[in-house]
Amino acid sequence: MTTPEEHAAHNAEAERQILHDVQEHGFFVALFHGDGYSPGFAYTIGLFQTYGYPELICFGLGHELMHSLFWEAKRLFDEQPQPDLNVGHPGFLEGHDVRFLVVDKACYADYLGYGMWFYNGRDFPALQLVWPDQQGLFPWQDDFKADWKFLQPLLDRDLDFKFREERNLGVFTTRQVLEGLPVLRVSHDTDGDWQFLCTTTAETEDLRIVALEEILKRDPSLNELYQLNYGWSAWRETPEHEWETWEQAADEDTE
């Protein structure tokens, strides 16, 4: 885990590189690795300032490929400064179609942090570049490849549900939570199980299984933990406090 000083130094270096690349090349590409649960992604900073084009974000592909896709998109915007977002772009991705979605500004803080720093807020447009599966289907279409569904969180919809699983996924909670006590401890186990607990009981007979969507409806603030990786836990003293996260020890009892 990095110290506050190391984090500040990293941010300062990143900001310096962003300003340099925007000046020298027109835009900067911020790259983020996946962690096994959340997919890797990349986004541009500077397209809007330099060319008046929307910034772009893409998920789930190799960094070099996403970088090259942004340059290809820039060339497309050179020819079509305001492309029709209701149509695809066949041949864009090695013979495959791609689509562009308008990123909801509510998602900017989740993914476009350096972009918000660069523009001093959310006053810039952004599009998500979405790629298809081998059948040419997109994540919102029936029969899209199931294993790839959560590689591309769609940033124009489902703002009430940010997790990488299906809404009806069964998760562990307690009778007390279902009766109204707040969730104060969340664990995302290495096997993928989620636990949303109240910390007032450790009795097996109090455990219940409900749909993940049901827990989020009861407490929308739990969406803040949508990137909690496998093997990590989160705790807060009260619903008004910030979440603290840590990696679970191999033998930690999360029940």
Summarize the structure in short.
With about 260 residues, the protein is of the alpha+beta class. The protein is about 25% helix and about 20% strand.
Describe the structure.
- The chain is α+β, with helices and mostly antiparallel strands.
- It has 2 domains: 4-151, no CATH class; 170-247, no CATH class.
- Helices cover 26% and strands 20% of the residues.
- It contains 7 helices and 11 strands.
- The chain has helices at 4-25, 47-51, 63-79, 108-111, 113-119, 175-178, 212-218, and strands at 28-32, 41-45, 55-59, 99-102, 126-130, 170-174, 185-188, 194-197, 207-211, 232-235, 244-247.
- Strands 1-2-3-5-4 form a 5-stranded mixed sheet, with helices on both faces.
- The relative contact order is 0.11.
In whole angstroms, how far apart are the ends? Answer: 25 Å
Secondary-structure element pattern, one letter each: HEEHEHEHHEEHEEEHEE
Helix % is 25-40%
If you average the pLDDT, what whole number results?
Answer: 92
Count of individual domains: 2
| Principal-axes shape call | globular
Low-confidence stretches: none
Structural class based on helices, strands and sheet pairing: alpha+beta
* Percent of residues in β-strands: 15-25%
How do the strands line up in the largest sheet? 1-2-3-5-4
Summed up, the helix count is 7
Number of strands: 11
Question: In angstroms, what is the radius of gyration?
Answer: 20 Å
Largest sheet: 5 strands, mixed
